Amino acid sequence: MTEDWKKRAEVKRDAILAAIPKEWRIENPPNEKQVDVTGKFVQQFLSEREVEITETTADDIAKHTVSGTWKAEEVTRAFCHRAALAHQLTNCLHEIFFDAAIADAKALDEYYAKNKKPMGPLHGLPVSLKDQFHVKGVETTMGYVGWIGTFEGKTGTGKEKKFESEMVKELRNSGAVLYCKTSVPHSLMTGETVNNIIGYTWNPKNRNLASGGSSGGEGALIGLRGAPVGFGTDIGGSIRIPAAFNGLYGIRPSTGRMPYEGMANSMDGQNTILSVVGPLATSVPSLRLVMKALLAQKPWLHDPLVHEIPWRHEEERQILEHTGAIGDASKIGKLSFGVLRSDGIVNPLPPVCRAVDTVVKALEALGHEAIPWEPPSHKTLLDEGIKTWFFDGGTDLKSAFALSGEPMAEQISFYSSPSLKEFTASQIAATNVRLREIKKEYMEYWNSTAEKTSTGRPVDALIAPLAPFPAARPKMYSYYGYSTFVNVLDYTSVVVPVTMVDKWVDRRDEGYRPIDDTDKKVYESYDPEIYDGAHVSVQLVGRRLQEEKMLAIAEYVGKALGM
Amino acid sequence: MTEDWKKRAEVKRDAILAAIPKEWRIENPPNEKQVDVTGKFVQQFLSEREVEITETTADDIAKHTVSGTWKAEEVTRAFCHRAALAHQLTNCLHEIFFDAAIADAKALDEYYAKNKKPMGPLHGLPVSLKDQFHVKGVETTMGYVGWIGTFEGKTGTGKEKKFESEMVKELRNSGAVLYCKTSVPHSLMTGETVNNIIGYTWNPKNRNLASGGSSGGEGALIGLRGAPVGFGTDIGGSIRIPAAFNGLYGIRPSTGRMPYEGMANSMDGQNTILSVVGPLATSVPSLRLVMKALLAQKPWLHDPLVHEIPWRHEEERQILEHTGAIGDASKIGKLSFGVLRSDGIVNPLPPVCRAVDTVVKALEALGHEAIPWEPPSHKTLLDEGIKTWFFDGGTDLKSAFALSGEPMAEQISFYSSPSLKEFTASQIAATNVRLREIKKEYMEYWNSTAEKTSTGRPVDALIAPLAPFPAARPKMYSYYGYSTFVNVLDYTSVVVPVTMVDKWVDRRDEGYRPIDDTDKKVYESYDPEIYDGAHVSVQLVGRRLQEEKMLAIAEYVGKALGM
User: By C-alpha distance, which of A475, A490, A481, A479 is closest to A522?
Assistant: First the structure.
């Protein structure tokens, strides 16, 4: 068996590559020879028209396809081509089904020709999916060798290559075209994307760095414009990390807003901190477009965990109507922000500090205000919250690895510790109570900021790092506190790209005195030479179920930054 | 210690009685001498004006107090008096704080006089609370002797008699007057209300029977009109059972609609099936009034588990605007109902069958339709759901009883079994996954009814028994499936009173062939002589988070029944 898994992984890896048409095959230069494969590098393999299509945002593509000025088939072919290049350059795909996609696109064009109207608001829009979604015709391996040829590790279920996740149906109903599934780290429990099938997913903007995780394939693919919009999942940062590392917008909605029904998962049934599903894209209107389209499908009628909350235009109206007038805070209404410069556990690296400053200054220049964020202890919150990832003592993951005998990646070796034990019901209950208390305390802190703002309202959003580094270097992702505190609180968070690392500006402080060993490890991972050119992002955190408002604010902030 | 608990219980029991002014003390005739203590019996101890006030529904009282035509103090005094009588006749109170209530009422009257406006939509309205709410100045024992003089069993917390639950604050902000806390069964895990402090809470309409549980004090108190509206909680039927047994309306909202923050509970932290809080009252507009008032306080800003869903008039508008025209289904729009006559596990007793028929006939006569409800197996659903009550193997309850050494009531003796073991995290996760699958299957069954209705829509609500019996006889509550399936699904359910047992009509079927021993036990508990005159109710079950719509339908059905 030990050698068997290597062979099975190789066969699968080859099958993925083999699904790319010969004419789209390229020579992939070594990472060190071609660190940045975005922009001009990838464009050389594409026609002008393909570049035009693939560098259009999802919302603008939809305007063309919905109005019929662009054909679904042409758009789909362009993205299939670019996704094929992206995979060859970064290892970002687990499943390729271009033929099915082109057939679907043709059917959409025929539908349009016949009915003189689009199938739905996503008519003809290619959408990529993390390899947790089940799509008919292809597998879901989630990076596990033992899942190859199975349905979530089981055989003979009758669901293999047939069953579709709820959101997949809803995307199809809305007219979206599905064409590929993207890479994940096996287990989903790390911010780097690595598994024994496709290897390591690289950051296309800087191939010294991780594309992020666990939705790292989405990050790399959309970062290279191999998809205009795609869906990831997030239990500790897994949508936002790849969004941030790849210069994208990405939203972690609160639990119960978007349909997770029928997706594969790790440690399914742990229901203290739930993984959520949400989109990544190159613009905020793209995120809004797909979320609105999905909510228009009334997912609460098909997913028992989705709340009946349709898209609430009222929550975004005031900000959206005045985003054009970014010079005039009096129109949009003055906004108040909290600023978290450090959580006191690990300090962000110089480029991240600069990104936070950049956002604050841009907003202040427009007449808004930012006050220091002095919340209840993040350490307490994180210590309690992270317990949930270990409730089952690694039982679920170990059984997935045992299916094939493949080894765990070093990045998740903490799950192989023999000292891990299953929590008892009483221990889980105590954690749940403590987490509810922590949420209550944090919520009341948020309320209390009304006393510190000049608006008399609590802050509208929190500006915070998403990770201590712009992106992680391989095997150096050692601290998750900045992304994970949001999951513990179940808040809404949108990643906003801010700048890029400039080795001449973002220098190391050689006199830096680390807080402790964890902080030291992070600081020591920073090398301006290696990081030069990497994307730097922040997150804007809102209260629970504030998706409309937070997207509006993120769009406004993006415009303020000129992004 | 063994004898000590008896003494502590007696002291507390006496203190409750002692809080009733001497002039309100009465002689309580033996149950068998005076089976029904409602109506004329209790009225004999009240003035005409007191009867007028206390027999007005909460929504009509609020109209008077909000417009200033009735004074808060007069209303409060009347309800204090009647609550004092109710306690003496049924043992329905754990805490009495009439003096504080009268002082609060006077302050409200002064506020009104000074500001020429009410404090809020509940200005001057007395509201009773189940003894899980913390209210300053009084204890919360939840029926545990070991909790007397503590905060949830702990001493030195600084919260004793000071801390208030979130909803208590919101009720006060809305102008409500709090004056008593009502009895519960220790553990909260039974449909009868019994504990070692106050003994047994009797059904005022028929003192052969239970007032229900676990919000049994609420049921008895409101049943006797000692409160116009009050709040209970429900994890397996605990709001609806006392509502049904006492001829009241009561709603079990879905999880996340009403604020539970800061309340005492059993097995706190079990978060697979959550207990929810909701009102019981003598009319639907009374339930609506308090729910709307609470949502107007934006509880999602103070309770991390409440969803931001304000009252949605749109969901009730069409039905409400035409409830006057109940003869005309074309105006209200034809409604479709599912009818569950039996869950196949235990058959409802004759009066309950008659109540279900009565509702169906009344609706059909008005032009609506009812189709048989043939859902996925309730047995499977219940077997899985009820596991959640045993996740901790009784650890929490045993520790509460151990505080004083008091014995568990026979009604919950299943928790003292030495064979109970704590579930592991993996076992809990497997249960959570299975329950999600069960919910999904049930939801799709509901969707599928669109193919069977004449409206082309899925059914608007399900008509179902709330319990197999009109009320339980002491120690004979042996089956909870009719109430509990709603909690497992997290659906909205409103209890509607329908009729009363008539021993001449609701006869035993001496040839009845029971399904099995459980069914036999229930059937054998039915004795028309004992049950004569008892309330008989049904529940109207709606999908998750359908509170507005379900209240509108319940009000409509109530009018159709002439209740």
Answer: A479
Asked about A286 being catalytic, the answer comes back as no
Residue A327 has pLDDT above 80, yes or no: no
A429 and B270 in contact by Cβ < 8 A?
yes
Q: Is CATH 3.90.1300.10 what the domain over B2-26+36-560 is classified as, yes or no?
A: yes
Q: Is A237 annotated as a binding residue?
A: yes
Tokens describing residue B225: 């009109």
Give per-residue pLDDT as tens, B313-329.
999 988 887 665 555 56
A9-49: per-residue pLDDT in tens? 999 999 999 999 999 999 999 999 999 999 999 999 999 99
C-alpha triplet A76, A78, A84: angle, nearest 5°: 100
Per the prediction, chain A carries an average pLDDT of 96
ipTM: 0.97
Could you please state the CATH topology (level 3) that the domain comprising A4-25+35-560 is classified under: Amidase signature (AS) enzymes (3.90.1300)
Question: Is A102 assigned a ligand-binding role in the annotation?
Answer: no
What SS3 class is residue A249?
strand
What are the residue ranges of helices labelled H in A55-187? 58-67, 72-90, 98-115, 166-173
Other CB atoms within 10 A of residue B458 CB: 19
CB contact under 8 A, A425 and B270: yes
Phi, psi of A90 (to 5 degrees): -135, -5
Dihedral of alpha carbons A346, A347, A349, A354, sign: positive
DSSP B360-393: HHHHHHTT-EEEE--PSPHHHHHHHHHGGGGTTT
Residues in chain A with CB shorter than 8 Å from the CB of B269 are 428-433, 436
Q: Residue B240: name the closest of B215, B222, B272 by CA.
A: B215
Mutation choice for B interface testing from A267, A415, A424 by most B CBs within 10 A? A424
Q: How far is A16 from chain B (nearest CA, A)?
A: 31
CA separation for the pair A523, A56 (Å, rounded): 37
Give the DSSP per-residue string, B198-220. Answer: TEEPBPTT-TTSB--SSSHHHHH
H or E, element range at B5: helix B2-18
Closest CA of chain A from B277, distance in Å:
17
Burial code (b: 16+ CB inside 10 Å, e: under 16) for A2-22 equals eeebeebbeebbeebeebbee
- Strands (E) in B38-99, as ranges, are 93-96
Length of chain B, please? 563
Residues of chain B with pLDDT under 50: none
pLDDT at B327: 53
* Torsion (CA) A156, A160, A163, A168 in degrees, nearest 10: 160
Does the pTM of the predicted model rise above 0.90? yes
Of the candidates A496, A500, A499, the residue with the CA atom closest to the CA atom of residue A556: A496
Q: Which of B267, B302, B546 is facing A429, going by the closest CB pair?
A: B267
Whole-angstrom distance, CA of residue A236 vs CA of residue A239: 9
